[in-house]
Amino acid sequence: MKHGLLDLAERIFVLGLYGALVVRIVESISADGLGLGNLLLLPSEGLVFFFVLLRRRTRRVSARPGDWALAMVATAAPMLVRACPERALVPEFVAAFVVMMGTLVQLHAKLVLGRSFGCVPAHRGLKEAGPYRFVRHPMYAGYMLSHLAFLSMNASAWNCALYLVCTLLQIPRLVSEERLLGLDEGYTRYRARVRYRLIPGVY
């Protein structure tokens, strides 16, 4: 019962965040005529909402307040960004290409996870195929790539602060996920085989 309520709370939280992001981007399109690059943020962040809705329930989800705080803040921060194309640091087509690459990395990882995706640490089954053969958390690598590209098109102090908070929280978030998954012997073997978390040969 408790896990079901936690699962529902997470879904409602993500729905509210994504809905607000869509409204802000659409309003900016009407007011400022934003280009394709900023529009690409919607499918990138929308993947989170889509897979949270489709995921399967779990009997093992973290109830630690710290884990929930990490997951909620790290999920919320990138959905609070605002478009300000007048502050672009790079040509839009360059940033748009990088956003697409980051989105494809996320999509591949999430398709491998399927209904096992979640924001808060939980155990919904182990996945070792696709990009998980190279790093243990390819989704986060894709997020960082997309975030960097969007920031390069919308280089405001607000957006920089949000993405900095999100990035700084990813490491303890990864650790909390691995602490829960480490209760499974299969994950312990997988972790020994795939050494790197985000970037092959680096971390």
From TrEMBL:
Annotated keywords: Membrane, Transmembrane, Transmembrane helix
Transmembrane segments: 12-30, 36-54, 88-107, 148-169
Source domain of life: Bacteria
Pfam families per the UniProt record, alphabetical: PEMT
Location in the cell: Endomembrane system
Membrane topology reported for the UniProt record: Multi-pass membrane protein
Membrane found in the keyword field: yes
InterPro entries noted in UniProt: Metal_cation-efflux_comp, Phopholipid_MeTrfase
PANTHER family named among the record's database cross-references: BLL3993 PROTEIN
Official protein name in the record: Protein-S-isoprenylcysteine O-methyltransferase
Organism, as annotated: Pendulispora rubella
